[in-house]
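STRUCTURE:
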């Protein structure tokens, strides 16, 4: 196995090419760029997200300081195979992907469902992760986590009737500030105009939501054994993964930094306050 070379730092997330690597009979699609280093930052994406759902501002800023890699989960976007039906299975896939690239240790930035997968990864192979950023997420069995299914479908239908991306409602507060942040974020996701990823199938959304519901109703895991440095961030009015879960998660992790909660923001607070977030995230990842 060969380590994935970081692409030329002159690339941006809108221009970096999509590459492929095989693991567990799956052909994983991924994008890799930034400063060369032995330990990359792996970005774990959210529910029903492909490579084009990564915020270019966050990715490019991290890439200017670190080597960063994003990837599609099994059956998502250009990655082959059938969508995993459980969060632990998705974690096993992620581990296989990382090993296929030749890495024995990585840093992780995870958002929403990506945070669920990261926690399961720690339970399976704790030494694979070094530092971890958990945004808009919570612990297994956390308050309201299993309710994301009904909320997601509700806002999907709202998006259909209003001709908006559901993330406009799911990720941001529905006031003037939140709506402006939502519009800015969704514009950033469209900056890549060539070689975009394959659209996520509706069947993938259904399977992922089912996996989240099962995980959200499951017994909490013992996270006290993990000594990894962890940065937990969220918005103060997260409807998808209620903000109380961020505090709960940080309490369960013995080496977590003080929780960062952004005001007047929802599930996508890290995107709304990306500039402020990066002022914390970059030093955390580079020190």
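SEQUENCE:
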């Amino acid at each position: 196995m060969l380590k994935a070379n970081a692409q030329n730092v002159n690339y941006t997330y809108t221009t970096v090419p999509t590459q492929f690597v095989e693991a567990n009979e799956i052909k994983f699609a991924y994008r890799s760029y930034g400063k060369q280093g032995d330990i990359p930052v792996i970005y774990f994406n959210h529910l029903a997200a492909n490579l084009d759902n990564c915020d270019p501002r966050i990715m490019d800023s991290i890439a200017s300081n670190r080597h960063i890699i994003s990837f599609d989960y099994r059956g998502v976007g250009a990655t082959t195979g059938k969508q995993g039906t459980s969060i632990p299975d998705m974690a096993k896939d992620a581990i296989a992907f990382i090993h296929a690239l030749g890495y024995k240790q990585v840093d992780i930035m995870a958002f929403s469902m990506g945070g669920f997968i990261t926690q399961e990864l720690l339970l399976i192979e704790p030494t694979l992760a070094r530092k971890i950023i958990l945004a808009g997420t919570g612990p297994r069995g956390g308050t309201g986590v299993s309710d994301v299914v009904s909320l997601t479908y509700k806002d999907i239908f709202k998006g259909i009737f209003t001709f908006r991306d559901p993330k406009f409602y799911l990720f941001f507060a529905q006031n003037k500030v939140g709506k402006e942040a939502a519009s800015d974020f969704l514009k950033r996701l469209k900056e890549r105009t060539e070689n975009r990823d394959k659209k996520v199938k509706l069947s993938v959304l259904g399977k992922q939501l089912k996996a989240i519901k099962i995980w959200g109703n499951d017994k909490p895991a013992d996270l006290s054994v993990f000594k990894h440095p962890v940065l937990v961030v969220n918005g103060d009015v997260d409807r998808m993964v209620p903000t109380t879960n961020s505090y709960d998660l940080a309490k369960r992790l013995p080496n977590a930094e003080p929780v960062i909660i952004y005001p007047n923001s929802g599930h996508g607070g890290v995107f709304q306050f990306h500039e402020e977030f990066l002022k914390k995230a970059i030093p955390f990842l580079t020190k």
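REMARK: The first strand starts at residue 18 and ends at 23.
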